[in-house]
Amino acid sequence: MMAARVLFVDDEENILNGIKRQLRKQYEITTALSGAEALDAIRVGEEFAVIVSDMRMPEMDGVEFLHRARELSPNSVRLMLTGNADQQTAIDAVNRGAVFRFMNKPCPVTLLVESMEAALEQYRLVKSEQELLEGTVNGSIKLLTDILSMVAPETFGKLTELRELAREIARAMRLISTWDIEMAAMLSKIAYVTLPPQTLARVRAGKALDQAEQLVIARLPETSSNLLANIPRLEQVSRIILYQRKNFDGSGFPQDMLAGEEIPLESRILKVLHELSVQEDNGLSTATALKQMGRQPGRYDPKVLQTVGWFLMATEEEEALLPPIHVKVAGLRPGVVLINPVETVEGHTLITAGQKLTETMLQRLVNYHHVHRVREPIKIAMPAEA
């Protein structure tokens, strides 16, 4: 087993040298003579299990350093060495640096090792819980998307495209992380799995719905949100989905006081992308649809609408395609464009026409074909650049 990585920070070099001599056989020790030097070590290397800092250091004290270290490496367990353990120092260290344990200088080696071992046990606990949580979340997401792909394959195909577009728009709007909006895009219509088969068939065919069905459809964001709310790590995804139809002026569902930039940015992005997709399905060009949406003040976030317009207009040029050909499933490749929909031998649509096959879509199609069979040949076109 590799030795645990530990970072010691102190402006007195002789103290650091003494610590390295005493503990180098037990831990992989890195030292730094200042907070700034220590932050650089955190940025460039592998994660430290434990970070131990002196309190009194010039330029950046231990509380400030541990506060910044927490932002850079939240899993690392933080300890503080101090010769002046006053009450205010303790309060600041706990509140800003989330310090796990204090040690007074001079610190006996036995106490230092005892504190280190307790910190390492805490680190292992945090990491194991994190791995368990990530496994649970990933498994839950895969299960939900697999169910949706079977119940509503056309919807699933569109959501795959929506996820990619939502990620690019989020990046253009400088969202630090795109994970939440990507998951919200993929799961934004997960409530379709709760619809009665006859209602789902009418929705997919664009047919008129009765009043009861319209009410069910109107509450789909709430249903989707509720399905996800109790899954660990998906709380924010659930909230994004809940507000994905909320108007920028605060009207619409859900009926609460949130309006404008109080509505999650990810929800405002999804609202524009979802409703733009509906307009395009009705036969409008992207440019025309965006113009019409821009004439509805209060409905959309103007900044989001503008960003979506800029992004799509920049990529709107039609990709040059080679003449269509017919291939079997085995002849499909990622990147080809479907000229006709992919259907089962019974005539059920699996992937709608006009879509560019992704690796994920192709793998699902191949797996389906092995069991249920897909109607062949399939009419496709290759991008000219390929």
From TrEMBL:
UniProt-listed GO biological process terms: phosphorelay signal transduction system
InterPro entries noted in UniProt: CheY-like_superfamily, Cyclic_di-GMP/3'3'-cGAMP_PDE, Sig_transdc_resp-reg_receiver
SUPFAM superfamilies: CheY-like (SSF52172)
Modified residues (4-aspartylphosphate): 54
Domain of life of the native organism: Bacteria
Ranges where the Response regulatory domain occurs: 5-120
Keyword list, A-Z: Phosphoprotein
Classification via Pfam families: HD_5, Response_reg
Protein name stated in the entry: Response regulatory domain-containing protein
Organism annotation: Sedimenticola selenatireducens
Taxonomy of the source species: Bacteria, Pseudomonadati, Pseudomonadota, Gammaproteobacteria, Chromatiales
